[in-house]
Amino acid sequence: MPTFYRQAQEDKFTGSPAYLESRQSAFRNDQASGLIEIQATAEDRIVLLYADGLLAGSYRLGPDARTRIPAREIASGWDKPEAPIRTVSLPDPAGRSLWLALESRTVGSQEVRDAAGWNRFIESSGENKLSALVEINSEQCDGFLHVQNGLIQPTETILSTPRGFLHSLAEAQAYLAGPLNIRLLEPESASLPCQCALLRLSATRWGNRLLARYLELVGQRLLQTLNSKLNSMLVPWQWNIQLTNVNIIDRHFFPKVEMAVQAYRALFITMNEQIAEVIGGMLARRLLAETYSQLEPEEVMLLESRTLTPVVFAE
User: Fold this and answer.
1) Rounded to whole angstroms, how far apart are CA atoms 300 and 315?
2) Which phi and psi (to 5°) does residue 114 adopt?
3) Spatial CB neighbours of 124, under 8 Å, sequence gap ≥ 6
4) Percentage above 70 pLDDT, the chain
5) pLDDT band at 63 (very low <50, low <70, confident <90, very high)
6) Is the separation of the CB atoms in 214 and 11 below 8 Å?
7) With 0-12 CB in 10 A as exposed, 13-18 as middle and 19+ as buried, what is 142?
8) Partners of 61 in the β-ladder
9) Could you tell me the pTM of the whole model?
């Protein structure tokens, strides 16, 4: 039955809609993130995704289609009173990558037979400036990586392996030697998971540029102090976001754009305040504006649409 993250630790049971509701309640009560798969018919599966106890999406998967369905239809369309139900707890990057995949369309596929073939795929992705969500399937590994303009986005890589969930291709190299089935997915630009992903990449790219410029001005010791203060600020919010050197590592699964905006606004306001204490308000505002102007036009438009701008953070 498993269709996603087959190597992950799982709970399987053949149960009724009442049993399914108990599994959903467990996610809600524990504010947990994870996946529920229901074998509704011989050909159809229903997939539920939870993020911090919230239902991010529910989908019906057939042989040739993936359709988002309302919550009221989750327990309908079963061909028997009881169905096989699989429950998996997921790290946030696994949940949000699957969420994005379920609202994407297939634009290509290929089979990779060995390590050389995998390396050729990575090289050609860079040469051709590929932009796609890449779904990987093999006997020992399945998951996703996000390629944007030929560059693999490090925080968007998640692979389920016998060693657990891995966040980098280097860690998973032993499981990528083939044979692999690869699908290239194009996210629906207006979909909620795509909007969340684009916002995440744009906000963190701006933050990374800001941290890099701050490092140039003040040096490594003061940058580490800033990292420490901001990481401490993030702890009470329980966001899976961490600053490491000049990188903002956002691995949180925000099921709503508004929730992500709240997190980024709090982070940038505090970051600007801390930077201003060291280099002064005028120079801090200049750094915000300078690094913002270096973003791609579509990134600026997206951030502006969510009122994530230098003017707002410098007020």
Assistant:
1) 19
2) -155, 180
3) 130
4) 99
5) confident
6) no
7) buried
8) 45, 66
9) 0.94
Rounded-to-5 percentages of helix, strand, coil across the chain: 45, 25, 30
- Cα–Cα separations (whole angstroms), residue 211 to 1, 240, 270, 275: 45, 19, 13, 10
Q: Locate tokens 């379920």: which residue?
A: 102
Measure the CA dihedral 288/244/239/293, to 10°: 20
Helix axes 281-293, 257-279, angle to 10 degrees: 130
Of the candidates 116, 124, 253, the one whose C-alpha atom is nearest the C-alpha of residue 173 is: 116
CA distance 211 to 26: 40
pLDDT of residue 152: 94
> Span 2-31, mean pLDDT?
94
Mean pLDDT of the chain: 94
Count CB neighbours of 233 within 10 A: 15
Buried b (16+ CB within 10 A) or exposed e, 257-295: bebbbebbbebbebbbebbbeeeeeeebbebbeebbeeb
The residues with which 111 forms a beta bridge, in sequence order, are 181
Average pLDDT for 137-146: 93
The whole-angstrom separation of Cα 8 and Cα 172 is 15
Rounded distance, CA 184 to CA 107, Å? 6
Kindly tell me if the per-residue pLDDT of 261 is higher than 70.
yes
The DSSP code sequence of 50-93 is: EETTEEEEEEEE-SS-EEE--GGGTTSS-SSSSEEEEEEE--HH
| pLDDT above 80 for 276 | yes
Residue 178 has pLDDT above 80, yes or no: no
Tokens matching residue 26? 């467990």
Q: Who's near 140: CB < 8 A, 6+ residues apart?
A: 7, 161, 162, 175
C-alpha neighbours within 13 Å on the C-beta side of residue 109: 8
Confidence (pLDDT) at 216: 97
